[in-house]
Design brief:
Blueprint (H helix, E strand, L loop, with lengths): L3 E7 L10 H12 L4 E7 L5 H5 L3 E4 L4 H24 L4 E4 L1 H5 L3 E3 L6 E2 L6 E4 L8 E9 L9 E8 L2 E4 L7 E5 L9 E2 L1 E3 L2 E4 L5 H4 L1 H12 L8 H9 L2
Parallel strand pairs: 1-2, 1-3, 3-4, 4-14, 5-7
Antiparallel strand pairs: 5-6, 7-10, 8-9, 8-11, 11-12, 13-14
Helix pairs in contact: 1-6
The structure holds glutamine (GLN).
Amino acid sequence: MKKSIRIAWLYPDLMSTYGDRGNVIVLERRSSWRGVRADIVPVTLETPVSVLESCGLIFMGGAQDRQQKLAGEDFLKRKGPVVKKMVESNIPALFVCAAYQFVGRYYKPYQGDTIPGAGIFDLTTEHPGDQAKRLIGNVRAEIVNPHVLAGTVIVGFENHGGRTHLGPKMKPLAKVISGNGNNGDDGWEGVIYKNAIGSYFHGPLLPKNPAIADWLLEKALGTLALLNDTLEQKANESVR
Ligand code: GLN
């Protein structure tokens, strides 16, 4: 097992809505509890891509449409191509909500221009208009992907207007039990490709779903010692 990790946190000042900063705190804590030094590396609009390339795990969180657009040019022209290369080389990554939309082919907000995506995942997201209900509330889903803890029930909070649809070769992360997930229609939540996960689950996701946190950390560090997750499991079971 490696004894240190650098965790890239993309656009912490723009894309960290609904407590998504909690995800990087969990990754740092679950590393430290195992004696692994974890450095959280903020990657802002001004950060050179060389800093991003030096990291072994990537996190990008949710945002309102406005902040998504502010990050758009930098992500598409500078950071996105590097993130794509890192994901293709099996660097673990977690993309939540707006970030999930951003790493697809495009996000079409209900007003303004379509925001092109980095094309890391073959998926598209479209907002059906300001008269359409936002997909908001607690959400539960069962992981269906055999490479990622199949059968585990994950929980979170969703708040998005965009509806995401996966391309034919994309593997969903989980089957919705209650709530909406990707689009409130096809019953799928999230996506997994190589060691990268996209999800609509805020909450933040990782504190109530430690198995996902450890899955990401193991891809970066190697086999991990087990932790006592009694409290985390109680938090998971509390979401209905
Ligand atoms: N702005 C995007 C939408 O409304 C993403 C929102 C979010 O990140 N929670 O769909």
